[in-house]
Amino acid sequence: MNDVMPYIALSGILFSIGCVGVLIRRNAIVVFMCVELMLNASNLALVAFAKQHGNLDGQIAAFFVMVVAAAEVVVGLAIIMTIFRTRRSASVDDASLLKY
Amino acid sequence: MVAFWILAPIMVIAALGILFVRKAVHAALLLAVVMISLSVLYLTLEAPFLFAVQIIVYTGAILMLFLFVLMLVGVDASDSVVETIPGQRATAIVGGVFLGVLLTVGLGQISLGTAVGLDDANSGGNIQALANILFSKYVFAFETTSALLITAAVGAMVLAHRERLTPKATQRSLAAQRLVDYEESGAHLGPLPPPGVYARHNAVDTPALLPDGSPAPSSVSRVLTARGTVRSAPAEADAIEQIEEQLGWAPHAGRDGAVPASTTEEAPATGGDHE
Asked: Which regions span the lipid bilayer (chain B) (predicted)?
């Protein structure tokens, strides 16, 4: 069996789980982990399509996604740390002061 | 495909676990399970370079960064179960299930045909082939990445750096402050009681017993209390009673009077009120 369809389906399932996690979790760090899960799911789809079409552009795209994810995590966690330092809380509901 | 059918259920279960575990550390470990499984899937998809990068960058660097931040933020930063927007959680779950069904069913409708496979593209080695593309077709994007990475590094340093606004507290000033507190509010001047005093164990998770046999909450580290791993003291308090009986001592006057009822009621609260 030389089919990549199950990989794409798994990628879709992982992406929706990540989506739900971003929406229902209140801890900013766990929300961030769910964003990572969504990025990983899209990477899996990219690599699977690279195999389907027989060229390596999909793998290069997945590689760039990883680089951008690393940069995003560094800045995002620094922001969470700064907010935690001033508010003593890592909950996304407590950082609503920027709204006003 | 065998590896896929073994790993796919593990990944889905671990990913669902991220949604439902209470502690952020457990969520990070479950995410590690998903990422390592994913790297093996990359191997089955003929991407050995991404297999290594996935383990080194994601599992090695990014997840460790998450764990470091969890260590700094503290263990009691667990999720609140309060819903800020009423019905948001149920709506989100329904929407997520809808999205998942839509993606899988919609993708099930199309047929991609037999995969071409990467045997031709990887004929000179996967890493060599990736390097050929990366440094010809995508060289501009690759060089731009360096600007992105240095911006992220500088940004993180600026955000995490903290200027010292007040002079560093010396031992002398701390001692003076302690005396001022004692004068104003009568706060205890000496050190806190160490854990385990008069209890059967002197481990750090066993609260000290006050002379009347009740546990002293201030003797246990705040972190242990938040984590919920403080031993309950009533067992030790009972043991003291037994020892007193064995020795033939008269029970404490204070023990029999007001305290014993509160000993059994308060002690579980020492370890359990944060739950």
From this structure: 6-21, 28-45, 51-73, 93-118, 138-160
In chain B, beta strands by DSSP E: 208-209, 215-216
Biggest CA pair distance of chain B = 90
The Cα B192–Cα B207 span in angstroms is 12
Q: Domains (ranges, CATH) in chain B?
A: 1-76+126-142 (1.20.120.1200), 192-251 (no CATH)
Window 90-119 of B: residues touching A by CB (8 A cutoff) are: 92-93, 95-97, 99-100, 103-104, 107-108, 112, 114-118
Nearest alpha-carbon partner for A42 in A15, A9, A73: A15
From chain B residues 224-243, the ones with a CB under 8 A of any chain A CB are: none
What residue type is B127 in one-letter code?
I
pLDDT in tens, B69-95: 888 887 655 566 667 778 888 899 999
Which position has the higher pLDDT, B207 or A31? A31
Over range B244-248, report the average pLDDT: 73
pTM: 0.75
Question: Is the pLDDT score of B240 beyond 80?
Answer: no
Q: Which residues of A touch B159 (CB under 8 A)?
A: 75, 78-79, 81-82
Question: Could you tell me the two tokens for A10?
Answer: 């798994």
User: How many residues are listed for chain A in this entry?
Assistant: 100
B151: Cβ contacts below 8 Å, ≥ 6 apart? A71
Closest CA to B44 of A37, A63, A2: A2
- For A14-27, what is the mean pLDDT? 91
**Token match 């079409």: residue?**
A53
ipTM over 0.90 threshold = yes
